[in-house]
Structure formats: C-alpha cells, structure tokens
Amino acid sequence: MDSRIIASILTKLDKFNSIKYYTLGWSKEGEYEITKKLCKIINSENIFMKLLDNYYDQFTLEKLFISGGMHNMYANIFLNLRNYFLKQTKILFHGHGLDYMFQGIYVSSRNLNLFGRPTIIKKLINLDYSNIVDNYINTISYRVKNVNFDDLININYKKELNYNLKIKLTKIIKESREFTDNPHKSWNYLITHNLSRHYSNTDVLGIGTNAEQRKIANDNELFDFYMSIPEDHNLNGKIMKKSLILENSKLANIESANTRYKISASNYEITLNNYINKILYALTNNKKYKFPSGKRKTWPNEFEILKESSYFRNRINNLYDSNALRENLKFINFEVLKKKSEMFLNSNEYNGFAQFIFLLITLENMFEEV
Predict the structure, then answer these.
(1) Beta strand pairing status for 117-124 and 109-114?
(2) In the 8-state DSSP scheme, what is residue 317?
C-alpha cells in the first residue's frame, strides 16, 4: 500500500520519470508477482532482490551493531543488497511508518468477533486517562504476545518491574497533556514520541546501509497532518485505501500479496471473503483458497524460521546455560525459560514466543560483545 502511493505520485513528477521498483523477498512467488503487475501499470522496471535462504543467521555482527542491542537485531532484512541496485539508482524512497500513521494499525481499538473468532475489523475502544497505560500494556499490537511473563519473571522482581514500566509510561502520558486533553491523542504521542526506539527502526537503519534514502513519513507537515486526524478516520486503513483509489485506481485494484484481495478492499470485504474461502477450501481442498503464508508473504514468519533453522535451534537450546544472560537478566526464571523453550521447539504452540526468543538471543549477543 505505502509503496504504491509513493510510486504513483513520483511517476507524475518530471524529475522522477524513470523510477525503478525494487522488490525484496525469498522467492518470486507472492510479492514479486504482484509487483510485476504494478510496474506494468506505471511503466516501471521491477528488480527482484533475493533474500538468502539462511539470511537470518548471516551478518550477525552487522545486525547487532546496527541494532545497538536495543532492538530485535534479526528483524533487519535489508543488509547486503547494494549489488542489486542499478548504477543510476541514487536515492531509495520507501513508505516505512505510513502504516501506523494512515492505516491505523496502532489506533487504540479492538477487533470485532464473528462466530466467536476475532476478525480484522477494528472498533475504537473507550479510552480515558485512568486506563490509558493499562490499555497500552495489554493491547498494543507490537507487544510480545502469547508469553506469560508472570511465569518467566522471578517473583522478587515482578512488583518492581511492573511499577517501573507503568511509571515510565505515565510520565510520557503526562508530557502529552501539555499539548492535548484528548486521550486518543495522548495514545498517539505514546506511540510516536521516540520513533528511533520503535521495534521496526532497524528496517530504516538497514536500508540506509545500501544507499541514500528518503523516509516519507519523516516529513514534518505530513506528521502534523497525521496528528490532526480524528482516530475513527484512521481505523481499518480507510485513509490510505481512499488515497490510493484517488491517486491511481488501477493500482488500488491490484491484489495484496498478504491477503490476495485487491489492496483497497475494506476490512469488511476481506473478512467476508476470508470466510467464503475457508468454506471453499474445506469443500475442495484447493490451495488457491488458502490464506497466503510463509515465504509468499512480504515478511517471513519468525516462528517458522526459529523452528526450521539448526543454527537457531542450537541457540535456543543453549539459552538456559547462557552465563551472559544469567549475569545480566537476573529477573528471568531460567527453569521456566527452559521448559517453555522446549515446548516451543517441540510443538506448534507458543508461536508468539518467537519474538521473545529473538530478543533474548539479541541481548545474549550484545552482552558477549561488550
């Protein structure tokens, strides 16, 4: 969505009459297939950049130094791509950040349920200053999910850690009150007050190792506009979808590699089609009705990577005996960590544990280097 809007605008400017579209992926299935359709519409060359099959266990030191140990270093998939770029490519434009600004992915909301299961349709939650911190801790979408930290944290540290977390978040909310009395605007301030610490910032740092870049979302006027938008306007990606339809309806009608429906489809349309396809798949067993997964999607599945990689399986098995972690993360209950790690490796449950595992391995790498 982000790159389509940027490409459609740049192609209308005289100085950008020869843009190149770069697509990164594990294979030419999925994202690259879609991008070929887009490039045909905007008359652009499409260059495929293949991720190494073992990319996640390569460039370890580079990923660590770029992340500074403050982010999941393995989320950075943009290193070692310079050889793919054409000589005339001087600047890389990308839409990092536009998703949380204009697709509403971090709006304080909840997913509506249908037949007892959550859908992708979101509804604003009632937010006030008495519950904003607890709502953030328990519902923000980029939190580590499916991990019971009550078990993983030694009892002597629980109260202190929870207290310090809430104190820090409360301080940020207090800062926001200098500018607004709207809890939803304070929520946005909580999300954006320090974007360099956002979990996906390694994407931007990684891209910058290859060429000069322009992150459109960093434009101050655009950011001011984002902060002025009523929250319900941002729900379910309405602004981005409508913008793309107005800017280039042909690009808007091309499907998304992540959903297989036209990218401008409403969340209501996608939800309905998902249920129809599930029924059709159950009746026919035809894979064309399955939801895209794994390496056909834009982003790899961390759960699958950890389970399939011998390198990471070995790292996970050694976490329990890690002196670096034991010396620096005394609040972790390593007996529980060992049990959960074994369950993670030997079952299809605890898929949310992958994010936590990557963070632990990142910290282990950092502690061993310093």
Answers:
(1) antiparallel
(2) H
| Lookup result for tokens 């359709």 | 37
Q: What's CA 215's distance to the chain center, in Å?
A: 16
Rg (CA), the chain: 22
Helices 60-67 and 353-369, interaxial angle, to 10°?
A: 90
User: pLDDT per residue over 262-285, tens digit each?
Assistant: 999 998 998 888 888 888 888 898
Q: Render 68-82 in DSSP notation, one character per residue.
A: TTSS-GGG---SS-G
Cα torsion through 36, 38, 40, 44, rounded to 10: -90
Residues in the chain: 370
Q: What sign results for the dihedral spanned by CA atoms 329, 335, 340, 344? A: positive
**C-alpha span between 104 and 48 (Å, rounded):** 29
Q: Is 114 in contact with 270 (CB distance < 8 Å)?
A: no
Answer yes or no: are the C-beta atoms of 264 and 255 closer than 8 Å: no
Are β-strands 45-50 and 20-25 bridged in parallel, bridged antiparallel, or unpaired? parallel
Domain boundaries, the chain: 2-105+199-285, 109-140+143-192, 301-370
Cβ contacts of residue 194 below 8 Å, gap of 6+? none
Which of these, 195, 189, 191, lies nearest to 176 by C-alpha position?
189
Contacts of 227 (CB under 8 A, 6+ apart): 185, 188
Highest mean predicted confidence (pLDDT) among 13-22, 96-105, 164-173, 268-277: 164-173
Q: What angle do CA 199, 200, 201 make, to 5 degrees?
A: 95
Query: What is the predicted pLDDT for the residue at 361?
Result: 95
Q: By CB neighbour count within 10 A (0-12 exposed, 13-18 middle, 19+ buried), where does 67 fall?
A: buried
Model confidence pLDDT, tens digit, residues 107-126 = 888 889 988 888 889 999 88
Q: Does domain 2-105+199-285 have CATH number 3.10.20.30?
A: no
Pull the structure tokens for residue 139: 């519902």
C-alpha closest to that of 3 among 220, 253, 240, 212: 240
Return phi, psi of residue 216, to 5°. Answer: -55, -35
